[in-house]
Write a structure and sequence with these properties.
The chain folds into two domains: about 60 residues, Helix Hairpins, CATH 1.10.287; about 100 residues, 3-Layer(bab) Sandwich (minor pseudopilin epsh fold), CATH 3.55.40. Helix 1 runs antiparallel to helix 2. It has a three-stranded antiparallel sheet, sandwiched between helices. A hairpin with a 4-residue loop joins strand 1 and strand 2. The chain is globular. It contains seven helices and three strands. The protein is about 50% helix and about 10% strand.
Length: about 200
């Protein structure tokens, strides 16, 4: 069975997000951590394929948990890379900004709330901005690990990775400083492109 997932190329160079994310930090995050989730997902699919072809037994509960963890890790990272950009290259909030102002009162108020959510994630995880097209409402959510507390089917428009592997080389244990720096590299153009798909 061929690999189903592959590591996507970044839409910028490893040094292009500095000083907010260093070249070393970004290189390790992309080529080691994200690659690890890709490898993990592909390995599990091979286990499942083998079991289906040969009738071999496997631990269903553990395998499903690992599959969810690794696939979600891959998909969130793939989204994350495209929703950040070199400082000054991410454009303006645009259409999503108008909805943020309507729901949160101002973009600054949204940033404050999103930052609090990101900094307070227990353990490893993410803060994401999701959109419910059914009621046309934005939601800020915490995701523990890669796959816990996520509302099924809601498209994620932007995400910030607050696993320590995303920032430790640059910020040590100061997650708040990393999230503060994140706002300098938000790719509003990419967020708006994704938002348009769900209108």
């Amino acid at each position: 069975m061929d690999n189903l997932y592959s590591l996507p190329d970044l839409p910028y160079g490893y040094a292009d997000l500095a000083p907010h994310i260093s070249e070393e930090q970004l290189t390790i995050h992309h080529t080691k951590h994200h690659q690890g989730y890709v490898n993990g997902a592909n390995t599990i699919f091979k286990i499942l394929d083998d079991a289906r072809k040969n009738g071999s037994e496997y631990d269903v509960k553990a395998t499903q948990r690992e599959l969810s963890f690794n696939v979600a890790g891959h998909l969130l990272h793939a989204l994350f890379w495209t929703k950040i950009a070199p400082a000054g290259k991410g454009g303006e909030p645009g259409d999503i900004g108008k909805l943020l102002e309507k729901e949160f009162g101002s973009i600054e108020r949204f940033k404050e709330e999103f930052t609090k959510v990101a900094v307070s994630v227990e353990g490893s995880g993410w803060a994401v901005l999701a959109y419910d097209p059914l009621v046309k409402k934005l939601m800020i959510m915490q995701i523990e690990k890669h796959n816990m507390n996520l509302v099924p089917s809601l498209p994620v428009l932007m995400a910030v990775d607050v696993w320590e592997h995303a920032y430790y080389l640059d910020y040590k244990n100061e997650r708040g400083k990393f999230v503060e720096a994140f706002w300098n590299i938000v790719n509003w153009n990419g967020i708006n492109e994704r938002f348009k798909k769900f209108q």
